[in-house]
Protein 1
Amino acid sequence: DHINSLSHKRTSEEIYNQACKIIPGGVSRNTIFHHPYPHYISHANGCYATDINNIQRLDFGNNMAALIHGHAHPDIVDAVIKQIRKGTAYTMATEAEVLYAQLLCDRTPSFEKIRFVNSGTEAVMAMIKTARAYTGRPKIAKAEGAYHGTYDFAEVSQTANPANWGDINQPNSVPVANGTPQSVLNDVIIFPYNDIEHTLAILDQNASEIACVIIDPVPHRVGLMEGKTNFIEAIYEWTRKNGALLAFDEVVTYRVNYGGAQQNYSVKPDLTALGKIIGGGFPVGAFAGRSDIMKVLDPRESKLLFPHSGTFSANPVSMTAGHTTMKMYNKDAILKLNTLTQKATDQIREAIKIADVPVSITGTGSMFRLHLKPSAPTSYREAYQNCETKTLINEMLDYLFLDEKIMMINTLTCMFSTVMTQKEIDMLSQALLNMFKRFKT
Ligand code: PMP
């Protein structure tokens, strides 16, 4: 109560001023910054989030794509409270973990075995280490611009200064954090997403050293365009011929189909990393895949190749929230959500036409991204926002947040949830029409 009454008397600006003195930049997640200061949340329900000044916003951020049924869904809240009363974390294993593992393995054919961790970053890290342990090889290959969390190796060549990118057909391994060891850069091979010819040529140069090729089937930072079927198939074939593994990052894309985005392809990944929605609003990650590969984690093996653990791995609160969430996210719910999102993008395309602005849309399933370009980008370098565009996008995000009371993810991306309806779609398309007209030059 003391903490509540304290924060309610203060403005977001005052809280932020205090935050800046003790937290670098005042924030723990750089991406949630809104100018001139972040607004602090009071509470959220369904698809609406209310800040401490009692301003309610329609939320298309959904905690960075992590909420599939919106905020505080009563069934999830009930299940979690029941678990919390029995304890929140134990040294012993829980049945909740096993039941949830079963549900996910039943959904996705490539998940023969699964393990839980605490974030998408950790899931990708464990997936890479599993691939290395199984193949005995040091290198990984990833797409230029693709975001896979903050593990040293996974974060190479995310978004960096274009001056360092190098030849479009043979991109450089660009460090993100200052001080990234050269050895890390040497062990990460970068390829241009959806470009079969150049990707295969790059992979060939490192054929005997690559443990896995990491693919996000709809990479958000690359441009939220779908991986082309023949691109994914070509990489799959290459990994079969060269003793490497195909590793999917489905931390975001698991929402797009019942078995994840991988269900949309004829080939199966050997390993998959999960996170976000599978935690039902609580911190989670998981990695899953072929039994013979996941054996590297089995402590009963005479030679344990990848010893792996974690204090909060398979935490019963996350397991309970996740299980309740995914049970509700059944085939009917997915079809309904994806249809609603399709309707939204149709309406927004109409708004783009009415406002006559050079804007395009990419995305699939329950997510889309707007691009300030007349036609949808097909590559990372095309989708990349230079400083000028970034400034404009930030102004647009601020306008939507402050004037239209709509929250998006910072690339003008929307993540839908099952509690949204036609009403919210209409609010979104009207707000975007207003924005297009306002920012039209
Ligand atoms: N992979 C992808 C595709 C992601 O979008 C993210 C998070 N945005 C991650 C991995 C890392 O997940 P987390 O933030 O939970 O560490």
Protein 2
Amino acid sequence: MAMKVAVTGAAGQIGYSLLFRIAAGALFGPETCVELRLLEIPSAINALEGVAMELDDCAFPLLDSIQMGTNADQIFDGVNLALLVGARPRTKDMERKDLLDANGAIFTAQGKALNAVAADDVRIGVTGNPANTNALIAMRNAPDIPAERFSALTRLDHNRAVSQLATKTGSRVSDIRKMTIWGNHSATQYPDIFHAEIAGRHAAEVVNDQQWIEQYFIPTVAHRGSAIIEARGSSSAASAASATIDAARDWLSGTPDDDWASMAVVSDGSYGIAEGLMYSFPVTTKHGNWEIVQGLEINDFSRAKMDATAAELVQERDMVTELGLI
Ligand code: NAI
């Protein structure tokens, strides 16, 4: 059996890292072949052909076929997983509303195409920014696909938070469980260690340093993207691809029993977050389904941060509503 995986923006930076990992079996393991469906805009098709030549040259045993194109209805036909990476970057003088509008055009069209032609079991992960609101737009333009099949990527933030916590406490990343990113994949996100564990111990107690949490940990995780642009001269790509893989793999195959993942999914009102927002929660997953972890105690510090990032998502939702995108 082969899984049909669509990747949009496949000729971009993230695509260049992501496609080779998928083709090597990182999503479904060594028993499942993959058919890649790569969507690009016309000006990037030449570059995409070069990437496909390199994929051929890797002679990946699990890679059954590569289909490339600019027509979403053709590329998404029968896909089981769609990783929506391609998006319109923010350019100079662009207001947030212009950015939402430009991306809205992409994600309304892709939502409609997925609605029309994707496989019945399709799962859709949105990496392209502004990821949460792009996912909301795609979801709302795909009325026949259950809303739970859409998610936006906050796994990179989650992984960044795990790594920072491991460094601070001198522990291994594999000892850290139950990290949470709440809210928007933006500077307002809230990386929360109050429920996290380090080798079974309460992380916030191990750290025992509220000043580090507030003045170092949260800003470092939330502004890591800008720090990487500053240092590298371009935005995070390999780590974003790796997180895109982690998120999709865990969604499809399940989180471990004693852990959870952070994923932006449609809110059902849990933790007082407005229903219908595409908000990052702690989730457990099994067989391609997710459930928001319930019953976590939220302290006042966390509550304020969770509400602030929710307020930003409400603003984004109001803007795309006003623009007629949803
Ligand atoms: P990039 O600019 O290198 O590549 C984007 C690709 O998307 C380009 O090849 C472009 O031609 C293509 N594209 C644009 N419109 C398209 C459309 N309508 N259909 C298909 N393809 C289209 O950008 P990069 O570095 O690969 O990043 C991609 C996106 O991921 C950006 O929006 C970036 O902000 C976002 N990102 C998200 C992260 C997250 O954690 N959620 C982390 C890092 C990046």
